[in-house]
Amino acid sequence: xxxxxxxxxxxxxxxxxxxxxxxDADVAEHRPLVVVGEPSSSGIAGAIPYIDLGNNLFTGTVQxxxxxxxxxxxxxxxxxxxxxxAAHCLTDDAGNAFPNxxxxxxxxxxxxxxxxxxFRSVAIHPGWTFDYSGNGDDIxxxxxxxxxxxxxxxxxxxxxxxxGQEYLRIGYGGFGWGDVGxxxxxxxxxxxxxxxxxxxxxxxxxxxxxCYMVGWNCGGGAVLTSDFxxxxxxxxxxxxxxxxxGQLFNLxxxxxxxxxxxxxxxxxxxxxxxxxxxxVNGMLAAVTSYGFSFGETYFDYGGGLNSSWGEGMADTSVAxxxxxxxxxSVPVPAPLALFGIGLLAMGLRRRAx
Length: 353
Ligand SMILES: [Ca+2]
Ligand SMILES: [Ca+2]
Ligand SMILES: [Ca+2]
Ligand SMILES: [Ca+2]
Prior knowledge:
This protein is of the alpha+beta class and 353 residues long. It contains 7 helices and 17 strands. The strands form 3 sheets. Strands 1, 9, 12, 13, 15, 16 and 17 form a 7-stranded antiparallel sheet that branches. It has a 6-stranded antiparallel β-barrel with strand order 3-4-5-8-7-6. The model is unreliable at 1-33, 185-192, 255-263 and 337-353 (pLDDT under 50). One calcium ion binds next to helix 4. This is Putative secreted protein with PEP-CTERM sorting signal.
């Protein structure tokens, strides 16, 4: 139910767009959504290189659960007590925190199995209003009730300029192929991924291109954008048919129009990846926020907003929000914990307020 609610809420149309823009924001669809770059003809075998079948890679990327239903992804911060995720995973339609987070938990998946840990508190970025056209503050932190398992990877924060950098995207979201988009149930029988899916891409830009096209996120560098390139180049000019940012802005991150990476082809985000991990040089650089399509006129391969080739992704920048993340993920000092539960609880409540 929560999963449905999140998907619905994220599909609301945008209205308050002040900036002059290339296309009507109401026409541009968007939703939070790893779809692999392979064509569907490669089948599941073609996608195996993208799936963490042994659950032994990227163990700091976790699933959010509500009453046993998985609905978003997240990343374990250096404190070992906090999960960085997307605010839209944990807020109502107005961007407000829920009255409580009873029934919510974080599932860690490692080679030895699963471990679930309840929430102690949630911090939602104060700038988040569930308006994707706004300032891009789609970021939240879950404090765990107990420390994460020792085997789970703690991601360090990337504070440099990520534009032009290759990234690795990791999530538990909808699965699919670049030509057909996301196909739920591609990996797990119940329609939800039980394994992490990952792959590479490049950050093409910040907010400037989105601002130019639809008037979104014009106020700062809170988001990082990238496109999901496909292999087709019908006119043979070296620019892919579905190279969104290349076609529109001559932004060609990477070495050619059809990006490669360790798994062979790049990836796009899909439903359920929200809040998931984007690593640059092994450090946490962004949080998966939403995907968007400008339609087939503007290089979408087809199928509407379905995580196909030719769509774009906007992700929340970690560097931009560095101070807020650090302030809201203070490690519990080991000596203090020894002095007494009461003192410790006071400190925890203050941070939760
Ligand atoms: Ca790309
Ligand atoms: Ca071309
Ligand atoms: Ca591109
Ligand atoms: Ca599409």
